[in-house]
Amino acid sequence: PWSATTRFHPYAATGGVPLMDVAERYGTPAYVVDEADLRGRCRAFRAALPDADILYAAKAFLCRAMATWIREEGLGLDVCSGGELAIARSVGFPAERIVFHGNAKTPHELLEAVEYGVGRIVVDNLAEIPRLAVLVPPGRRQKVLLRVIPDIEAGAHAAIRTGGEGQKFGLSIASGDAAAAVTRVLRQPELELVGLHCHLGSQIFAAEPYEQAARVMVEQLALVRDTYGIVLPQLDLGGGQGIAYLGTEHGLTPGGYARTVVKAMEERCAALGLPVPRLTIEPGRSISGPAGLTLYRVIAVKRTLTRTFVAVDGGMSDNPRPSLYGARYTARLIGRRSTAPARQVTLVGHHCEAGDVIAESVPLPADVRPGDVVAVPATGAYHYSMASTYNLTGRPPVIAVADGAARVVVRREEIDDLLRRDVGL
Ligand code: LLP
């Protein structure tokens, strides 16, 4: 199943269901998720790293069905809000397999995490240490990881690079905060320091930053051992594995990633006389991204002096990534065969701003017309989870397809849903 990240296949997410049937039955825009493809990606990571904890990063895409699939596949869950935790709880996700993240966890979120009994809480800053410690009930110890900044720059866009100094996440090694955090956690009997964490950023294609991170982090484990005589058993290297949106990008496979990271960890541990820590990773996009696509219906085709706009019934409310990160997409006509030659068009949404572009330079048949349905691939991560109701449009449903059958796992947001919370004067 991994090939879909590196080889473009517009119909990969059909699960045996014609996409046109989905569009007609459930309407557009709609997010479609291929359950078997997604489960295959979970299994590929488990097979590549059988001795590691694979946590799916919930922020990429989470709903009850997704939490259930992740639970069934035996993965853990990285959550970063009370909301994500609530969904995990609602499907009885095993607490010990949950890791709780965040750079500004509220006291209430921390309490909920402790009460549910999450396996690990990732401490992001010094203030969090006493705040968390007081919430731990007597007789219990909360396992924690410390998030440190490895000072490595990687990731597709400045907004999604989190490994360097000068961004908001984690404890700086250079400033001494990381060392201070180790000292303070070790002084709190309510907390049990089990390891270190880092997350470099997102949409990373190269192996090299991960190699570097593994080395830097093992050196930090050695520093803790040298300073306190304690060997921390765990190392969490976060997520960030890139996927193909256009079909031309080549990412790391789980196997390639695993070989790189395990080798770097083992070599550095051998050199420093440390046992190899238990590895945790947190892939999000690389599990759910390629398993999803978005269906839109064409509303208008406008040929201007300079280009052709194909306007559809969704846009930046269901896919804010082009405007936020300059992300690029492609699209395919589905549901009918056209013999017309392909022309480059600009696929735009229905929102009230010129920046509402889904994709530039998309080759669509010259006879593309209102009523046609187009599919935009690789929208399974950071689309549903980042959707807005801009211009008071309800968010699209999520349709799961598997074994030739489609079902709604998140229903469409209707105008009544939006009006209900607007209580008026
Ligand atoms: N672990 C931590 C601590 C993270 O902050 C993230 C993502 C992940 C794991 C998962 O990263 P992934 O494997 O999905 O790259 N909205 C942006 C991406 C933001 C990523 C935030 N953190 C986008 O649409 O590109």
Characterize the structure shown.
With 425 residues, this protein is α/β, with parallel strands linked by helices. It has 2 domains: 49-287, Alpha-Beta Barrel (TIM Barrel), CATH 3.20.20.10; 292-420, Lyase, Ornithine Decarboxylase, Chain A, domain 1. 29% of the residues lie in helices and 23% in strands. It contains 12 helices and 18 strands. The longest helix has 21 residues, at 208-228. The radius of gyration is 23 Å and the shape is globular. The N and C termini lie far apart (53 Å). Residues 1-9 have low confidence and may be disordered. Residues 57, 59-60, 78, 101, 160, 199, 202-203, 238-241, 282-286, 321, 325, 381-382, 386 line the site of ligand LLP.
Average of per-residue pLDDT values: 94
CATH superfamily heading of the largest domain: Alanine racemase
> Distance N terminus to C terminus?
53 Å
Q: How many structural domains in the coordinates?
A: 2
> Which ligands occur here?
ligand LLP
Tell me the radius of gyration.
23 Å
Question: CATH class of the largest domain, please?
Answer: Alpha Beta
- The percent range for strand residues is 15-25%
Order of helices and strands: HEHEHEHEHEHEEHEHEHEHEEHEEEEEEH
Which architecture of the largest domain would the CATH scheme give at its second level? Alpha-Beta Barrel
EC number: 4.1.1.20
Keywords: Amino-acid biosynthesis, Decarboxylase, Lyase, Lysine biosynthesis, Pyridoxal phosphate
Modified residues (N6-(pyridoxal phosphate)lysine): 59
GO molecular function, one term: pyridoxal phosphate binding
